[in-house]
Amino acid sequence: MWQFIKYVFATIVGLFLFSLLGFFLFIGLAAALGSSEEKTNVEKNSVLKLNLNNSIQEVSIDNPFAELTGGQGDVIGLLDIKSALANAKLDPNIEGVYLDVQYPMVGWASAEEIRDAIIDFKKSKKFVYAYGEVMTEKAYYLASVADKIYLNPAGGMEWNGLSAEYDFYKGTLDKLEIKPLVFRVGEYKSAVEPFFRENMSDASKLQNQVLINVIFNHAVENIAKSRGISAAQLKNLADSLSIDAPQDALKYKLITHVGYYDEVEASLKNELKLKEDDKIKFVGLGKYIKADKLIKDGPSDRRIAVIIGEGAIMSGKSTDGNIGSETIMEELRKARKDKKVKAVVLRINSPGGSALASDVMWREVQLTRKEKPVIASMSDVAASGGYYMAMGCDKIVAQPNTITGSIGVFSVLFNFEDTFRNKLGITFDRVNTNAHADWPSVTRDMTPFENNRLQKSTENIYAIFTRKAAEGRKMPLAKLQALASGRVWSGKEAKENGLIDEFGGLDKAIQVAAKAAKLKEGDYRIKYPAEKNMVEQFINKLTGNAEEQLMQQKLGDFAPYLKVLKKLQQMQGTQARLPYDIVIK
């Protein structure tokens, strides 16, 4: 028996050491590959290939293995895509762009920036091809500016309008005998509705209906211009479900060709004047960003610093998927103290989060704008706490399809007393030094007095939010409050009602910042944040991914609902957060 135990123990130790060695070999290899600064030599008659079906974030994750997987990482940066297109426009060795676009994992405002960058690239008179086996509406929105749009004969195109569907958990909470305790301000602050309703309130349904109508109408108008089809006809095609097969898309001129990939290749070869047996010289994004930069940087002593906040807002350091107030504060301080930085662009892609963390960042914005201009650039979402970050800036720039507003706050607690007693047989008792020493509690009912105190606290934070928003937007408090109440607005509506200043993406915000700092075009350098390091991301996610994969394996289709409950753990204190997780499809 002892001999058996020794063998088992030795095997376990061996496996552990092997795994540990493998891990460090991976880190070493990644570091070695990642440290390579070898430039990409772009050959003549090359084509920039953009695979837009990956997850697209503001900043890419540096993947040292990208060249082994097609020249592009799993998470690509919006900044890299735009930079590559701008460079390719000037690159004499790049003859055109090939878009692989089917299921782009990107928000509508980011899609707008990519689309605008493609339109700008076309000013070079170089070609743009797009191909997809299938295409969603968002994929088609990107592809619609291409010179030639190919759809696989056996594939399909989604063209039936946009929909936004939300999950409600009241029935689940009732079955588990969990009592939600909700404190909110504003009839439109519907982030907490899933916990005490089974459907959307009239106010919530109204704001969401208006929102998706604005986003779809904006897309339709732009597609109509690109394809020479009337907006009315495009809407009729969606209402009648007329686009059932690729041939239908061709019939109504939404695409230019129905064809397989080999036919796309043949057309590209003809465009490039290649022979049938010649190979197309594709260069992927991962490689092309290492090519020579043809857009020259301005003077290093005159800079515009771009600070990016992406994800839910919380206190502490930023992590993948979360904006940490401490990290943003540090970046703003650096920019404020750096004499070479003449202006700051705060790029925001956030549904909100902690009201306290949002206010802490607002304060740092105020300190910075006393010394140099601070311009907010809204990405896909800059709502609630995300709007809190922006409202103190000198100017706010957003896309017409940006989701913003949601000026409101809420607090939510759950009473698990009946759950523990009736489901698990667990009861609680306590002694206190004072009448409310255990307040707030999740294992007993709160008294009316205690509920009133939490509601007043939530209202006080809302009053601070709206007052500061009114000051930042230079409008009467009463007018701002009429736009608040948690109401979600599209960027188009936000400009009409004064919540933002100008339409545009990050490039426009940089132009506004340069003008505010009295810098001439070409007379400054843009200081972008460094891309995320893959090795650090790997270490940070090592345990998190294992947990997520296990959860997915055990729960299958129910895994996303558990994720929602896990998010509640992050909602500490009063929240300035967007209603639901808005997913428009």
Automatic annotation (TrEMBL):
Family annotation (InterPro entries): ClpP/crotonase-like_dom_sf (IPR029045), Pept_S49_pIV (IPR004634), Pept_S49_SppA (IPR004635), Peptidase_S49 (IPR002142), S49_SppA_67K_type_N (IPR047217), S49_SppA_C (IPR047272)
Any GO BP annotation: signal peptide processing
Residue ranges annotated for the Peptidase S49 domain, each copy included: 121-274, 368-520
Active site (UniProt): K189 (proton donor/acceptor), S384 (nucleophile)
GO molecular function: serine-type peptidase activity
Subcellular location: Membrane
Keywords: Hydrolase, Membrane, Protease, Serine protease
One term under GO cellular component: membrane
Statement: the UniProt record of this protein carries the keyword Protease: yes
Membrane-crossing residue ranges in chain numbering: none
Coiled coil: none
Pfam families according to UniProt: Peptidase_S49
SUPFAM superfamilies registered for this protein in UniProt: ClpP/crotonase (SSF52096)
PANTHER family listed in its UniProt record: PEPTIDASE S49 DOMAIN-CONTAINING PROTEIN (PTHR33209:SF1), PROTEASE 4 (PTHR33209)
Record family assignment: Belongs to the peptidase S49 family.
UniProt cross-references to NCBIfam families, sorted A to Z: SppA_67K, SppA_dom
Protein name (record): Signal peptide peptidase SppA
